[in-house]
Hints:
The complex is a heterotrimer. Chain A is about 70% helix and about 5% strand. Chain A is built from 21 helices and seven strands. In chain A, the strands form two sheets. In chain A, strands 4-3-2-1-5 form a five-stranded antiparallel beta sheet. In chain A, helix 9 packs antiparallel against helix 10 and helix 19 crosses helix 20. The model of chain B has no long low-confidence stretch (mean pLDDT about 90). By secondary structure, chain B is α/β, with parallel strands linked by helices. In chain B, a hairpin with a 2-residue loop joins strand 9 and strand 10. Chain C folds into two domains: about 290 residues; about 90 residues, no CATH class. Chain C is built from 19 helices and four strands. In chain C, a hairpin with a 2-residue loop joins strand 2 and strand 3. The interface between A and B is small, with 3 and 7 residues.
Amino acid sequence: MTNRILRLIAVLFALALSPLPALAQANDFAVMVQALGQGGFPDREAAMNALVATGDERVPPILQAMSDGTLYLRKSDQRVLFAAKSGSEFKLTDPVDGSDAGTAVSADIEKIKVNNGLRGKIRTAIGTMTLLSPDSASRLSAAQSILKNADPAMLPLLDSALAAETDPKIKSTMDLARAVIVLKSDAVLDDKRAAVDTIAAHGDQAAQTVLVNALAAAPDELKPVIQTGIDAIGRNLQLWQVAQNLLYGVSLSSVLLLAAIGLSITFGVMGIINMAHGEMVMLGAYTTFVVQELIRNFAPGLMDYSLAFAVPAAFLFTALVGIAIERGIIRWLYGRPLETLLATWGLSLALQQVVRTLFGPTNQMVSPPSWMTGAFDVGGLSITWNRLWIVVFAIAVFAILQLVLNRTALGLQMRAVTQNRRMASSMGIRTPFVDAMTFGLGSGVAGMAGVALSQIDNVSPNLGQGYIIDSFMVVVFGGVGNLWGTLIGALMLGVGNKLLEPQFGAVLGKIIILVLIILFIQWRPRGLFALKGRSIEQ
Amino acid sequence: MADKTGTMLYLDGVSVSFDGFKAINKLSIIVHPAEMLAIIGPNGAGKTTMMDIITGKTRPDDGEVLFDGRTDLTKLDEAAIANLGIGRKFQKPTVFESQTVWDNLVMALRKPRGVFSALFYSMSADDEARITEILDTVRLLNRKDDFAANLSHGQKQWLEIGMLLAQDPKLLLVDEPVAGMTDSETVETAKLLKEIAKTRSVVVVEHDMSFVRDLGSRVTCLAEGSVLAEGTLDQVSANPVVIERYLGR
Amino acid sequence: MITQLILRALDKKAIWLVAVLAVIAIGVPVLNLVVPEGNPLHIPNYAVPLFGKYLNYAMLALALDLVWGYCGILSLGHAAFFALGAYAMGMYLMRQIGARGVYANPTLPDFMVFLNYKELPWFWNGFDMWWFAFAMVLIVPGLLAFVFGFLAFRSRVTGVYLSIITQAMTYALLLAFFRNDLGFGGNNGLTDFKDILGVNVQAATTRAALFAASAFALALAVVICSAIVNSKLGKVMVAVRDAESRTRFLGYRVDNVKLFAFVVSAVLAGIAGALYAPQVGIINPSEFEPGNSIEVVIWTAVGGRGTIVGPIIGAIVVNLTKSIFTSGSSYIAAGLVILIFSGIVAVASGWTKGLIVIAASIAIPVLYGLYQLALYGSFKLPALSDVWLYALGGLFIFTTLFLPKGIVGLIAQWRTMTTKREQHDRNAPSPADVEAGVDPQPNPAE
């Protein structure tokens, strides 16, 4: 009793001292919250109603806590607090301003009890407050919580909220919640049928669970309807699942396309396999890392645009490395494709070791810019921004390369050399120059692929190794001398892999793809889009 | 067309195209046993493609290719066709450069071609005599232990002709045999081919008109994948179309 | 017929090689077992399986050379056949453990008990019998090579395409063998071997016997390969390598020739693997790594492809070098190896190229030291084991650039310079020259 008086005095004192109305208001609110801890159930209900009348957004969580039994009264100072059990103690938080209020053992605090009647009223109160709240996020969460609890008492409230709702997404959730409640209630059969249809039309995993739960309790005449609904949702979900896998496949395809397209160019024009191609990708990823670190240290404001600098930097750097390799090693091995393969393999070992020496063997952290983080939903699909941007990037790189090959002088010369090296040479095309430029271009594209890969994979010295065999497969599958072949090859491999994955698992799926390619090669030894004609034959 | 029986090589209505380009267009040619046919024609007339079709390297899109009046060559691969008795000398001499002249002929010598026959093969005195004889014919006896790579261009041509002889074929397809040869070598080659043609069928593709005249055989002129004119060299070279399209005025 | 074949196989070079191998096969075990410890000629116990391993590698390289050096098929998946042979032997050795495993299960190997297998997978049946297992050592790699080669050669997959799909083959096997549910021990592979043919696999005498077996197997491989390459088939193989389609127009079935060489080669590789497994005491999926197969290629190239002795020399030399770099800490030994290699390059392709090799070898530690200097203010040499990958990479690059004929090619070149027939042999084209495209091709511009 003395405590209470003391506390009252303290509050009054504080009120008297407070110079600002805002603070006074805050204290009003605090007093109203404290009132929840006093008196019997009717007192609590009155306190609750007073709180609800404020329309304050802090009220619903407090009421929810009271309903959940996590709202406590501290005996020492009669404060109403959130309490979360941690170990043998309770961690206390002030519900008014969210500040930390220390810890307490169970003897020091007392749960603010609610009975069933009150709990129902609390729920309605929360529902009213949130369902009609001007804030759309809290309306959505309210609708979702009603959907979860499916309390028939909420039906009238829901109906009035539904009539006022304009946001289609919230409206659809409310619709679903309403249907679920109707299904649970003792409404007439026709209403229930309509409810089942509404739920089935919703078509996601949650709706399916609702129907499955409802099936057992449903009257016999409703059961077939529900079953049909479940099946319809199942088909729908399966469709979305396939679509999602297709999407993963397209995403993987774009990565494969980026990694393979440079290889395809050098293989097509020069007839050599560059085993160090994966290391060019790796160097591109490390360039991204270096560019990011430079920006972090010298121009942190540009962090979100670091990729815009990394792409040209990676292209130029790896292109220069590529030209150096071509001039230093590969040009001495022309006409000996198998030996080129060996020399470039040796080069790949050395390049990996260089990077290991300079940067260490561990993964480097490349942080994604803000516009590449997160995900969004389309229907039943979940799409991450980074994957989407990589698809866009791959398409852009593909389109630019097509332009370079088909609309520039270098492209024309490259195509000429691809089709008939000797003839091109005698037409006055400087084939050594074309070779160097081709190798530079192929390596540069690999570097750009590295920029993309740095966003989704570990940037480590072994980065390139993980992609090189898949890239070969894409090139072999698509055939050389035609970028469309590479595109189709990447799509088939990527999508095929992801479609097989749910059925067989990732590893077995990959093995199946490899075996299929080995078999495919038997059928088309020069790939899907091989050039035909006498001069091409070996 | 004419009767198939009694022909060594019978092509009728053969066509093939590469990416829309008609390399051979309704070509029909007949070669009889122990007969020589010289084929002339401008570049791109389809002479080499025709040989590719006969030897199984290229499959025709359409038409009939028969050997010995009955064997359909379009169904067989290169090795099977070679084993039937069709030998081919390439335009660019292709011998096995890293092996000796002798070994080149050992491989060409008509013997069972199976893997195990080759593995367990050991040379009999007859085989040795036969190879020596061929070497003598193509004048390479004194170079039998040299690597083929070290032969002159003309000598490689002769070695390839020697390999053809060793194969003992019924039909020889000889693509530009005298390119890169001196005049006297050319004359010798013509003599040799005429000698061969007494017992076998020979098809020679050549640009060198004096050489074709030396051969004194029937001549067919090809252009744009089909036959332009046929007859003796004089008849063909008098043909106005041939003059316009190939020989020039 | 057979005797003739063998007689032909044993030309002068092969006789010497077989004799040397026979001496090694007997000499090393004697020096290990009979000569007492402390005697300078004594070979320590640890060295015997190490040398045995080198001989297995040499046999693998010889097998690869039969298809690459003689038949022009660059297989980038030969370690797969080696590993399959090793796995077949490993399965036999696992069954021999019996109830002595950690879980003391009389039939199931430890890893199966661990992975909750209830019974032996069907393909493990029979591997408790040595003759069955030994037959599988030959059959499994041979069958894989047959099926793979049959499909690939029939469809005329050649050149880099073939190389890449052989690599895909070993990669697919790598992924498969990593899986626990394949029944080959997954990641850990097969290990903890106890007995082979009833004797302890760890015993010094067994190790000596395995070494002798490795040497004899290599000698046998030399005779087989020699017999093949000296026969008319060998000439045809070289013809296929140099001018594949020309060979076809001679009437030879090129696909069959290749298939024969490929299968023989795979079986030889399998035998080498089977001898390897008990000597190193473990076989795991990493043997299927594509990198391993490519390393075999470089052994062959360093020694000299298209010769019988070359791959053997190459495998032993490269692996000895690897031991010097990765286990030893002797910079002097490593430097000597580099000097010798530079010397070989200098003799073979001229002193400028030798100097390039030396310059590259010096540049790497110096650059590393300068990097350390810039970063930490002290000049520090890299650890020798870190240099090995540079050395291996350099070996690949410089061998293909400057030593296309390998060490044996150098010896041959040296010998011709001292004989009268120099003119001829020096002009003999190497496989490398021929690869440069002498394949018959009707001129496209007819």
